[in-house]
Amino acid sequence: MPQITFNVNNNPVSIDAENDDELLYLLRDRLGITGPKYGCGVGVCGACTIFKDGELVRPCIVPMEEVEGASLTTIEGLAVDDILHPVQEAWINEDVAQCGFCQAGQILTAVKLLESNPNPNDRDIDEAMSDNICRCGTYHRIRKAIKHAAA
Ligand code: FES
Protein backbone atom coordinates (compact mmCIF):
# COMPACT_ATOMS: atom_id res chain seq x y z
CA MET A 1 0.00 0.00 0.00
CA PRO A 2 1.57 3.34 -0.98
CA GLN A 3 2.55 5.95 1.57
CA ILE A 4 0.84 9.25 0.81
CA THR A 5 2.18 12.46 2.30
CA PHE A 6 0.24 15.69 2.54
CA ASN A 7 -0.69 18.48 4.91
CA VAL A 8 -3.99 18.97 6.75
CA ASN A 9 -4.69 22.19 8.62
CA ASN A 10 -0.95 22.94 8.72
CA ASN A 11 -0.11 19.51 10.12
CA PRO A 12 2.01 17.11 8.06
CA VAL A 13 0.46 13.69 7.50
CA SER A 14 1.94 10.53 6.08
CA ILE A 15 -0.44 7.61 5.77
CA ASP A 16 -0.74 4.27 4.01
CA ALA A 17 -3.62 4.35 1.58
CA GLU A 18 -4.69 2.80 -1.67
CA ASN A 19 -4.51 5.24 -4.57
CA ASP A 20 -8.24 4.92 -5.17
CA ASP A 21 -9.30 5.31 -1.53
CA GLU A 22 -11.51 8.37 -1.21
CA LEU A 23 -10.02 11.25 0.76
CA LEU A 24 -13.17 11.75 2.86
CA TYR A 25 -12.84 8.33 4.48
CA LEU A 26 -9.18 8.93 5.30
CA LEU A 27 -10.00 12.28 6.89
CA ARG A 28 -12.92 11.04 8.95
CA ASP A 29 -12.10 7.43 9.76
CA ARG A 30 -8.30 7.44 9.99
CA LEU A 31 -7.42 10.99 10.95
CA GLY A 32 -10.47 11.80 13.10
CA ILE A 33 -11.22 14.99 11.16
CA THR A 34 -14.99 14.84 11.16
CA GLY A 35 -15.94 18.39 10.13
CA PRO A 36 -16.35 17.26 6.51
CA LYS A 37 -19.57 15.24 6.52
CA TYR A 38 -20.65 12.25 4.47
CA GLY A 39 -23.88 13.25 2.74
CA CYS A 40 -24.29 11.83 -0.73
CA GLY A 41 -20.88 10.29 -1.35
CA VAL A 42 -21.02 11.20 -5.02
CA GLY A 43 -19.97 14.85 -5.06
CA VAL A 44 -23.34 16.52 -5.38
CA CYS A 45 -24.45 17.68 -1.90
CA GLY A 46 -21.41 19.66 -0.70
CA ALA A 47 -21.51 18.41 2.90
CA CYS A 48 -17.91 17.18 2.65
CA THR A 49 -16.45 20.33 1.06
CA ILE A 50 -12.87 21.28 1.99
CA PHE A 51 -10.04 23.29 0.47
CA LYS A 52 -7.30 21.49 -1.46
CA ASP A 53 -4.47 23.81 -2.47
CA GLY A 54 -6.82 26.76 -2.07
CA GLU A 55 -9.61 25.36 -4.23
CA LEU A 56 -12.90 23.87 -3.07
CA VAL A 57 -13.08 20.11 -3.51
CA ARG A 58 -15.44 17.37 -2.46
CA PRO A 59 -13.29 14.71 -0.80
CA CYS A 60 -15.94 12.01 -1.19
CA ILE A 61 -14.84 11.88 -4.84
CA VAL A 62 -11.13 12.78 -4.49
CA PRO A 63 -8.93 9.66 -4.75
CA MET A 64 -5.87 9.57 -2.54
CA GLU A 65 -3.57 9.51 -5.56
CA GLU A 66 -4.55 13.17 -6.09
CA VAL A 67 -3.67 14.10 -2.52
CA GLU A 68 0.11 13.49 -2.55
CA GLY A 69 1.84 16.77 -1.68
CA ALA A 70 -1.43 18.66 -1.30
CA SER A 71 -2.29 21.21 1.34
CA LEU A 72 -5.78 20.65 2.76
CA THR A 73 -7.91 22.88 4.95
CA THR A 74 -11.05 21.63 6.63
CA ILE A 75 -13.43 23.57 8.84
CA GLU A 76 -11.22 22.56 11.78
CA GLY A 77 -8.38 24.60 10.27
CA LEU A 78 -10.28 27.74 9.37
CA ALA A 79 -9.82 29.56 12.68
CA VAL A 80 -6.28 30.82 13.28
CA ASP A 81 -4.87 30.87 16.83
CA ASP A 82 -8.40 30.25 18.14
CA ILE A 83 -9.69 33.37 16.36
CA LEU A 84 -12.68 32.47 14.25
CA HIS A 85 -12.75 33.39 10.58
CA PRO A 86 -15.11 36.35 9.90
CA VAL A 87 -17.44 33.99 8.06
CA GLN A 88 -17.64 31.75 11.12
CA GLU A 89 -18.37 34.80 13.28
CA ALA A 90 -21.10 35.88 10.89
CA TRP A 91 -22.58 32.37 10.96
CA ILE A 92 -22.83 32.57 14.74
CA ASN A 93 -24.21 36.10 14.74
CA GLU A 94 -26.91 35.20 12.22
CA ASP A 95 -27.64 31.91 13.98
CA VAL A 96 -27.45 30.11 10.65
CA ALA A 97 -27.20 26.47 11.61
CA GLN A 98 -30.23 24.32 12.24
CA CYS A 99 -29.21 20.65 12.32
CA GLY A 100 -25.71 21.77 11.30
CA PHE A 101 -24.84 18.79 9.11
CA CYS A 102 -24.10 20.77 5.96
CA GLN A 103 -22.70 23.88 7.60
CA ALA A 104 -18.96 23.16 7.41
CA GLY A 105 -19.28 22.83 3.66
CA GLN A 106 -21.50 25.90 3.47
CA ILE A 107 -19.00 28.01 5.44
CA LEU A 108 -15.98 26.96 3.36
CA THR A 109 -17.92 27.64 0.16
CA ALA A 110 -18.86 31.09 1.49
CA VAL A 111 -15.20 31.78 2.34
CA LYS A 112 -14.24 31.00 -1.24
CA LEU A 113 -17.02 33.22 -2.60
CA LEU A 114 -15.86 36.19 -0.51
CA GLU A 115 -12.24 35.65 -1.58
CA SER A 116 -13.23 36.11 -5.21
CA ASN A 117 -16.11 38.55 -4.66
CA PRO A 118 -15.86 40.61 -1.44
CA ASN A 119 -19.25 42.25 -1.97
CA PRO A 120 -21.63 39.71 -3.50
CA ASN A 121 -25.26 40.48 -4.28
CA ASP A 122 -28.11 38.01 -3.78
CA ARG A 123 -27.68 36.50 -7.21
CA ASP A 124 -23.91 36.04 -6.71
CA ILE A 125 -24.57 34.35 -3.38
CA ASP A 126 -27.28 32.08 -4.73
CA GLU A 127 -25.10 31.07 -7.68
CA ALA A 128 -22.02 30.39 -5.54
CA MET A 129 -23.93 28.46 -2.90
CA SER A 130 -26.41 26.61 -5.11
CA ASP A 131 -24.47 23.34 -5.13
CA ASN A 132 -24.41 23.10 -1.33
CA ILE A 133 -27.63 21.48 -0.19
CA CYS A 134 -29.24 22.32 3.17
CA ARG A 135 -32.09 19.97 4.06
CA CYS A 136 -33.20 22.38 6.83
CA GLY A 137 -33.56 25.21 4.33
CA THR A 138 -31.28 27.71 6.07
CA TYR A 139 -30.57 29.47 2.77
CA HIS A 140 -32.02 32.83 3.85
CA ARG A 141 -29.77 32.89 6.92
CA ILE A 142 -26.78 31.77 4.87
CA ARG A 143 -27.37 34.72 2.57
CA LYS A 144 -27.63 37.11 5.53
CA ALA A 145 -24.45 35.74 7.11
CA ILE A 146 -22.48 36.14 3.89
CA LYS A 147 -23.61 39.75 3.64
CA HIS A 148 -22.76 40.23 7.30
CA ALA A 149 -19.25 38.83 6.73
CA ALA A 150 -18.83 41.01 3.65
CA ALA A 151 -19.81 44.21 5.47
FE1 FES B 1 -19.32 14.75 -0.75
FE2 FES B 1 -22.01 14.93 -0.83
S1 FES B 1 -20.76 13.82 0.58
S2 FES B 1 -20.55 16.04 -2.01
- Main beta-sheet strand count, sense and barrel state: 5 strands, mixed
Mean pLDDT score: 97
Relative helix content: 25-40%
Count of runs of 4 or more consecutive helical residues: 5
Question: Radius of gyration over alpha carbons?
Answer: 15 Å
Bound molecules: FE2/S2 (inorganic) cluster
CATH topology of the largest domain: Ubiquitin-like (UB roll)
Kindly give the count of domains. 2
CATH architecture of the largest domain: Roll
Task: Work out the strand percent.
Answer: 5-15%
| Total number of strands | 5
Strand-and-helix sequence, N→C?
EEHEEEHHHH
Please give the order of strands in the largest beta sheet. 2-1-5-3-4
Note poorly predicted spans: none
Report the CATH C-level class of the largest domain.
Answer: Alpha Beta
How does the helix and strand content classify structurally? alpha+beta
User: What is the rounded distance between the termini?
Assistant: 49 Å
GO molecular function, one term: 2 iron, 2 sulfur cluster binding
Pfam families: Fer2, Fer2_2
Protein name: (2Fe-2S)-binding protein
InterPro entries: 2Fe-2S-bd, 2Fe-2S-bd_dom_sf, 2Fe-2S_ferredoxin-like_sf, 2Fe-2S_ferredoxin-type, 2Fe2S_fd_BS, Beta-grasp_dom_sf, Diverse_Oxidoreductases
